[in-house]
Amino acid sequence: MNSIYSLKSKFFSALLLSALLLSSCNDDFTNRPPEDSIALESFYATNEQVAKATNAMYNRTWFYFHNKFFFAIAEVGSGNMMSYSPDVNAMRNFSITGSDGELLVGWQSLWANVAQANSIINYLEARVGSGVSPEVLQNTVGEAYFMRATAYFYLVRLWGAVPIIENNVDYVNDPLINTNRVEDVYTLIERDYLTAIEKLYDRVRSGNYAENAKVTKGSAKSMLAKVYLYQKKYAEARAMAEDVISSGEFKLLGGAQLPNKSFADLFTFPNNNNEESIFALQWKNVGVYGNASNCNTQFGISNGTVSTSNASYGGVFGPSQDILSLYTTEDLRRRETIMFPGAVYPNVLAKIGSDFGPLVVPPADQIGGQNAGAAIKKYCIGIVNGNATGSADPWAMMENNTYIMRYAELLLIHAEAILAGGGSTSDASALSSFNAVRTRAGLSPATSITFNDIFVERRKELAFEGDYWFDLGRIPRAQAIAIMSAQNRGDRVTAQSFTPEESDFILPYPTNDVAKNPKLTEPPVPYTFN
């Protein structure tokens, strides 16, 4: 099987060799769909060809980050999910090491994103024909800056100090690279998002979902608001969030502006690229491994009699015992986040023995998977069922998008930035944003809020979307450790608890890459920006 990881020679070999992307579009490297494998000399003659230059960066380069690693760290690690599967369970008891296979491919995937973004940023402009519009070229480069910033935002939150690489070619002859300070990595991220804001198209998300797939100025502003929040730059986070809110680009499905939609619609295939989607990975079934999403299989039910997937297995991840009691019964997010025994999902087609029919969740001891007594509903869309689900590829992977950021999160960022920036617990603007998320879930509006209210609301809203680990990582360590130590990280029969150490909040560098580049373990150095 070809993959972006088949190029092995030196540290960051996939990263460094990918600098040649724009001079040699090698299928062994990219393994991309046919539309991305045209020889460069003739590729960038038209606007359409330039616009397609970033297509693989919405799926292929993110695949190994997303397939298991993302959930194994952010959800199992945070205590939202649990798994006994040996390739994804190390963070359940905080035993992950640099030799972990998923750690390595997650790391490599993020660097592949950096690499491809660098190729476009540094070389695309010199390789377009006269028939290409400057606006199209500028937008495409803006997408690359956005993707590089997003990859680095994950790298710095997961590993802390990492190398800053703005042009891969600079390191081809000397791939021994120092890490750079965390504050410098954040400076790069801010600069990249600000450049993306300058270059990307400005638009309002419409009901024509096909037009909403790629990122915009509003996407970059939203992600930058989150970056500011993580650095405790609350005034900047608030201003950026308010800029997005006032633009009207995004809307809550089931909110006041879209009352005919609902929270449940967010995770269905026909609603890919809806009005709430700020940035989502765009999975495609092209018959090549590594371009579609495995969530439907890994989150669903597979007990030998009932299956929600076209695969022969399922339920690699289950909900933790801790999260089963998170939601009140009146919270509309409860049944759309977790599948509890006896729940009926008329729109989810399941295989029941040799027959097919609407999913009725089996009893707790028959759900299968991780003996959690429940299953994960988000991203579980069921057996292939025409336009309701779209198709599956030969590995049972499907095209339902994965959110990196939704408008609901931006509203919660806005509320938190106001409060943390010295605002009142009854600030009208903060309450407006907070309550928009809360009332969409069918809950009564709050009249005052605290940081803890927002912290818990974020967990409820964004469970299984890869954020709770990072939320725990940005509160005081003692508080995070207390929360995680109190979680039941076992199954429905056997309770287990584990206490993380402070060092567990930063991942180890992959052992293979440390051996090739010992500078990874040296103290980080300042980075000089041009």
UniProtKB/TrEMBL annotation:
<dbReference type="InterPro" id="IPR011990">
    <property type="entry name" value="TPR-like_helical_dom_sf"/>
</dbReference>
<feature type="signal peptide">
    <location>
        <begin position="1"/>
        <end position="24"/>
    </location>
</feature>
<dbReference type="InterPro" id="IPR033985">
    <property type="entry name" value="SusD-like_N"/>
</dbReference>
<dbReference type="Pfam" id="PF07980">
    <property type="entry name" value="SusD_RagB"/>
</dbReference>
<dbReference type="InterPro" id="IPR012944">
    <property type="entry name" value="SusD_RagB_dom"/>
</dbReference>
<comment type="similarity">
    <text>Belongs to the SusD family.</text>
</comment>
<keyword id="KW-0732">Signal</keyword>
<keyword id="KW-0472">Membrane</keyword>
<dbReference type="Pfam" id="PF14322">
    <property type="entry name" value="SusD-like_3"/>
</dbReference>
<protein>
    <submittedName>
        <fullName>RagB/SusD family nutrient uptake outer membrane protein</fullName>
    </submittedName>
</protein>
<feature type="domain" description="RagB/SusD">
    <location>
        <begin position="276"/>
        <end position="522"/>
    </location>
</feature>
<dbReference type="GO" id="GO:0009279">
    <property type="term" value="C:cell outer membrane"/>
</dbReference>
<keyword id="KW-0998">Cell outer membrane</keyword>
<feature type="domain" description="SusD-like N-terminal">
    <location>
        <begin position="43"/>
        <end position="229"/>
    </location>
</feature>
